[in-house]
What we know:
Layout: H1 14-31, H2 36-52, H3 54-65, H4 69-93, E1 97-98, E2 105-112, E3 115-119, H5 127-138, E4 142-146, H6 152-161, E5 170-172, H7 180-185, E6 191-195, H8 198-210, E7 214-218, E8 223-227, H9 233-245, E9 255-261, H10 265-277, H11 297-312, E10 316-319, E11 332-335, H12 342-345, E12 352-358, H13 361-369, E13 373-374, E14 376-380, H14 384-393, E15 398-401, E16 416-417, E17 420-421, H15 426-430, E18 434-441
Helix pairs in contact: 2-4, 3-4, 3-6, 4-5, 9-10
Amino acid sequence: MDTPTPHSFPVFDAARVEAALVRAAAAFPLWRERSFEERSALLKEVALLLEARQEELARLVTGEMGKPIVAARAEIAKCATVCRFYAENAARFLAEETVNGPAPVNRLRHEPLGPVLAVMPWNFPFWQVFRFAAPALMAGNVALLKHASNVPGCAMAIESLFRDFPDGAFQTLLISAAEVKGVIHDRRVAAVTLTGSVEAGRKVAAEAGAALKKAVLELGGSDPFLILADADLDRAIPAAVQARTVNSGQSCIAAKRFLVHETVYDEVERRFVAAMEALPVGDPFEETTAIGPLATLAIAQEVHGQVEASVAAGARLLTGGKRLHGSFYPPTVLADIPPQAPVYREEVFGPVALLYRVRDLDHALEIANASDFGLGAAVWTRDRQAAETAAARLENGVVFINGIVASDPRIPFGGIKHSGYGRELGVAGIREFVNLKSVCIGGLGAG
């Protein structure tokens, strides 16, 4: 197949943004009255469209932001999965509940809020949108998408998948970051969700707070990956490499800091470095490519700057660390990282792994929690008590034991500290953008 050409689209002017807001406001009262069965049928049709157009959409993703094609296909398939999950479970998740209370009858209702603005990133250009859109739409809200500026083709393709929904139920806004503030403050917008950088999260949170509107933020991460003395290294080491290099290392929940018990550290370092060096780097449209280009030249330059500054501060470079052509960056491993090194405290959004030698579980947890981020964490051990202790003490929103941190429609996903607040996915995700209304009923006649 031919390599797709980059897409460009004109930025919306003020009149077009206003027209979209008018359509969203008009669509909401009609969409909220649709039954769960009607919403479910439409969302299942979107899942079928995703599957029918999987190759086309995957190649669009790869062409716009460089994701290896095998991973891009998997991303499209995962979007179909989340559509079906909420299509099949939303009615149960949002069913009216009866509780004890001050009146003879006390009910809890989950009602939609209205148009929700989603400010989404480029690294998973379909999945990030669908994990918001599927629950929000099934709850009866309508959606406004402000996507990253380097994936406009993906943004418009996503809108086309909702073609059978009522007019205005899902719309893409091709606007600049500077114009997000005005949309948040518009009286017709009920809430906002953002996945992105800490800086972007601060700005959106400030505007949402000023407008007194609900916000959900999923921000960066510097996820720890603990390998304890008794870990199954034949499983843990390949998992560690996969966890660091997912999406060429451009993932908030990619493992970034590897905390290895001193009794197995030397073996882990040797095998981990060898596995990183063996990863095929190249054309993202090739089926065998593991590491494609980073999304932009600026990102590659930033990653290299972090590595160079950290080596200058005393970190030991074990492999990689040299700029390749264009925005390609090699799998890189650093060890003996001093606290003053930039990578010790900053998120590295590329295939750069950080190895730490630790004395015991307490030492590992001390380093793991010495971070402003608190998104995901993984622990590899055969000791149930150690696993339970780690899970209880890690300051993260998601902890996987003997597994790779991943988002899944069935479980809530999100972080604490500088990784944001609120949750996506699971029952918690669909309840983020609803009004939990308490209805207390007394003194009514039989009729």
